[in-house]
Amino acid sequence: MPMLRLIAVLALATLLGACGGHDFEGVYQTRAGSNNELLNSFAELASGEKLVIGPDYIESQGKRTRFDDIFERESAGERYLVFKSGEQEEVWQIVDDNTLMQGSGLVNIKLVRVP
Description:
- By secondary structure, the chain is an alpha+beta fold.
- The chain has two helices and nine strands; from the N terminus they run αβαββββββββ.
- It is globular and about 55 Å long.
């Protein structure tokens, strides 16, 4: 009986460990956008960069930034991908399952998943 209980506990721990993470791991390409034509021309300079989102990091131009946690949050009917490091959080809006948007001011950076 104790052996069966040990196996059940190990199976449950393995299952719970596999449930973590997020569904946005992959390679993304940046695309800039703005409602202002002048700002849009400057924003295009930032377009085309590739970015990798991993289970607990972002990698861009060979530099890897690790986070304590990356998870999805829903607030007021909108979905967000949250990058948490200590007490600080960086939040990107989830447009759809393949598109993220960073920023909400004059210039927005869209990240589109590369197939």
